[in-house]
Design brief:
Number of strands: 5
Radius of gyration: 17 Å
Mean pLDDT: 81
Protein name: DUF8106 domain-containing protein
Strand order of the largest sheet: 3-4-5
Structural class: mainly beta
Distance between the termini: 39 Å
Shape: flat
Organism: Natronorubrum texcoconense
Low-confidence stretches: none
InterPro entries: DUF8106
Helix content: under 10%
Domain DUF8106: 15-56
Largest sheet: 3 strands, antiparallel
Pfam family, one: DUF8106
Number of helices: 0
Length: 74
């Protein structure tokens, strides 16, 4: 008995998808988000409605005990 060939030609997707709870926009973390540097890190804003989704620390803003920030990810 042989296994039939796969019919899916999908490439693996990016693990991190950000989601805007205000308007429903979703995109990979390196997608179409508006990214602005702030004193706290890089601020990711929704390109559709302008809602701030997350602020992610950069190498210069990250403290020794700070590894991640919370965000709206799926």
């Amino acid at each position: 008995m042989t296994t039939p060939p796969s019919t899916t030609d999908r490439t693996p997707s990016n693990k991190t998808v950000l989601y805007c709870f205000d308007c429903g926009h979703e995109s990979p973390s390196d997608g179409d988000w508006t990214v602005r540097p702030t004193t706290d890190g890089d601020r990711y804003d929704c390109p559709e409605c302008g809602t701030t989704i997350t602020v992610r620390p950069t190498e210069t803003t990250r403290g020794p005990d700070q590894q991640t920030t919370s965000c709206y990810c799926t």
